[in-house]
Amino acid sequence: MARRKAPRGTPATDALIAAGVAFEPVEYAHHDDATDFGAEVTRETGLDAAVVFKTLVVSTGPRQLAVGVVPVAGRLDLKALAAALGVKKVEMAEPKVAERSSGYVVGGLSPLGQRTPLPTVIDSSAEGLDRLYVSGGKRGLQVGLAPADLAAVTGATFAPIAREG
Questions:
Q1: Can you give the pLDDT at residue 15?
Q2: Helices 11-19, 147-154: crossing angle, 10 deg rounding
């Protein structure tokens, strides 16, 4: 079951603290054999899949990256993200490239506190939520915060970039 207590700092939680943003840390048991990290979060925390968002890194061109943040219950619409970013096309970044750029491991990628800040787009479904949950910067940690606060700290915009899973 998930524990809601102050976690040890990660770049993501440090960024929220530095920005003065209120957030709810939610720690949960991560299982090393897990491959569907979003399903693991909802199963272990009891959070609704509509409020848990995954962070996906895409390539927008040679050595150019961006971030899409979409509900774990859905999928990233690459064409919609490209349009939102004002580029011709995007493709999923290689996991090692995403890890190197962000400073996080796959399954713990957070839009917050990334080593290299990237253009970020949050699915517009988040705008109607009081709180959403994103990775807190490591497997086994989510942070809950207001969507507007996530956008402010990451410099993100909102756009319809998700499609049903």
A1: 94
A2: 100
Q: Each residue of 20-76: pLDDT tens digit?
A: 999 999 988 776 766 677 777 878 788 899 999 999 999 998 889 999 999 998 999
Nearest of 130, 160, 158 to residue 144 by alpha carbon: 130
Rounded distance, CA 52 to CA 38, Å?
A: 8
Reported pTM: 0.91
Neighbours of 24 (CB within 10 A): 12
Beta bridge partner(s), residue 31 = none
**C-alpha closest to that of 151 among 139, 159, 161, 142:** 159
Residues 6 or more apart whose CB falls under 8 angstroms from that of 51 comprise 71, 129, 131, 132, 133
Residue 145 burial (CB count, 10 A)? 19
Report pLDDT for 144: 96
Residue with tokens 């848990």: 52
Say whether 132 sits in a helix, a strand or coil: strand
CA gap 81, 130 in Å, rounded: 23
